[in-house]
Amino acid sequence: MSTITPGTWTLDAAHSDVDFVVRHAGISKVRGTFHAVDGRLVVAEDFARSSVDVQIDVASISTKNSGRDDHLRSADFFDVEQFPQMTFRSTEVRGEAEDFTVVGELTLHGVTKTVELEAEFGGQDKDAFGVTRIGFEAKGEISRKEFGLTWNAATEAGGLMVSDKVKLEIGAAFVLPEA
Question: Cα(30)–Cα(21) distance, rounded to whole angstroms?
Answer without folding.
Answer: 6
